[in-house]
Amino acid sequence: MTGATFAQVLSVPAPGPARPFTHVTSPGITGLSNLVRLAPGTYIERMAQLDTREKLAILADAAKYDASCASSGTAKRNSADGKGIGSTEGMGICHAYAPDGRCISLLKILLTNSCIFDCHYCINRKSSNVRRARFTADEVVELTLAFYRRNYIEGLFLSSGIIRSPDYTMEQLVEVARSLREDHHFRGYIHLKTIPDADPELVRLAGVHADRVSINVELPTAGGLKRLAPEKDGARIEGAMADVKASIADSRDATRKYKSAPRFAPAGQSTQMIVGADAATDGDIVKRASTLYDRFGLRRVYYSAFSPIPDASAVLPLRRPPLMREHRLYQSDWLMRFYDYRPDEVVAAADPSTGMLPLDIDPKLAWALRFRDRFPIDINRAPREMLLRVPGLGVKAVNAILTSRRWRRLRLDDVARLTVSVTKIRPFIVAEDWRPVMLTDRADLKPLVTPKREQLELFAA
Ligand code: SF4
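# iron/sulfur cluster complex -> structure
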């Protein structure tokens, strides 16, 4: 938007000379009474006439593309002592999930969907013809408190397009969190999206007030970022993540020595990658995620399947990737974080010719089918690392097997009691009374162990 902020846009008396405004709309959308005429055929909506409900509709809808809203892992805080308001734990916190599985228990909004950047994949980019709105910091504070009191939410997830400058925008985001914490003693969960180009001191202040901060790496490869978000700088994004990591480490050291030392982002930092907007394969994404976990101590990497947007740029694919691809990437992430798979092992589960994980089976089963020579494993003797690689055995089941086998040798029935389906497990294990005969050598093993698809009933009890 060539440097003009939306606030400045609002103060423009109509009509004016033709200017390169991009936040335009057509009279057919909202009616002429809401529009200021800038030039023949060019109108801009009067934002002052949007009430809070309209702004909320626009800015909550604009925030839905951000997947990184889970509130796990924060410090326990509550107002049971009668002081303050809000809680990050226990009863009274309402959790809800959208049909696509995204967490919506937080008030998840943008401060504004206006932006001076023009990232191709983003509906809020400056050249996008969407309806714009902007909250003040006070409005977000009031909304959060009102929703919290009604028990609609357990906290706030706040992000923003960039207006005026990264520093100005970051100041507004920090002001929301500061006011909630200091003026209203809000003890609920706050997740702030931070802006990598903002002054590091502002990012530090965000971490002082928020439970979690996140900086989006946006795309899995440097080439993808350069092509689809040319105004963003991969080095600056990583620099900001390194600063946050250092502040979290300093804060942990301080709280070990002094219990009352101020905490910095106790729920850590996370990031998000868009999947399917560029040519990156699942193998590229898995490797990138693993590097991010190692280098920046991230709590989570979120994967967001690219959604085609109206008036999309020609450099974007026309179709969205299957949502199942996003799901398989989350499963592969899970394997690295909880099942001790190395990134190269997860990559090995992908099809070598395409670098993509199969969509019809999970990556753990894909790995086991590809490396059949490692199976069957003896459930009564195998190390934990190999038990974790048996399709159908979860971490809890593996821990139970390790405990039980100290006292007796386990039979197939014992294992069946610990799992949802023993059919998937049988070809891969040896138990006291069970040995699969040539099962892992069968050409049709995959259909035998692939979960059957079933039509779920919409109104099932
Ligand atoms: S900076 Fe953020 S809000 Fe602005 S266009 Fe890029 S992705 Fe969208």
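# post-check
Residues 115, 117, 119, 122, 124-125, 161-162, 229 surround iron/sulfur cluster (CB under 6 Å).
The chain has three domains: 1-49, 50-321, 371-449.
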